[in-house]
Automatic annotation (TrEMBL):
Belongs to the EARLY FLOWERING 4 family. It comes from Rhynchospora pubera. Its main location: nucleus. One of its GO terms (cellular component) is nucleus. GO terms for biological process: entrainment of circadian clock; positive regulation of circadian rhythm; rhythmic process. This is Protein ELF4-LIKE 4. The lineage of its organism: Eukaryota, Viridiplantae, Streptophyta, Embryophyta, Tracheophyta. It is found in: Nucleus. Keywords: Biological rhythms, Nucleus. It holds the Pfam family Elf4. The keyword Nucleus applies. Residues 3-79 form the Protein EARLY FLOWERING domain. Residues 75-100 are annotated as: Disordered. It comes from the Eukaryota.
Length: 100
């Protein structure tokens, strides 16, 4: 069960990071909206950098969720392996394709 504790700690750490980034995004979005509504050239110009920061934050959240998913799959696979179950054919870090 020590392995379970480590997995849970890693999940908790990742979720705290995600929540922090999402809170930053909320603040960024509010500032972007205020700048847009002001229609002042300096504020609109500032939005370019704020939107880049927002996009980078979104990428970080996606990466954190991908790591979480991969870690979870590995922990489930290792539990299944120790119980004699057949290992799934997904590889750690493998991304699923999704419909757009």
């Amino acid at each position: 069960m020590e392995g379970d504790n480590k997995v849970m700690q890693a999940f908790q750490k990742s979720f705290v990071q995600v929540q922090s980034i999402l809170e930053q995004n909320r603040i960024l979005i509010n500032e972007i909206n205020q700048n847009h509504e002001s229609k002042l050239p300096d504020n609109l110009g500032r939005n370019v950098g704020l939107i880049r920061e927002l996009n980078n934050n979104i990428r970080r959240v996606v990466d954190l969720y991908a790591e979480l998913s991969s870690s979870f799959a590995r922990s489930v696979d290792s539990e299944g392996d120790s119980a004699g179950a057949v290992r799934s054919d997904t590889r750690p870090g493998q991304k699923r394709s999704r419909a757009i």
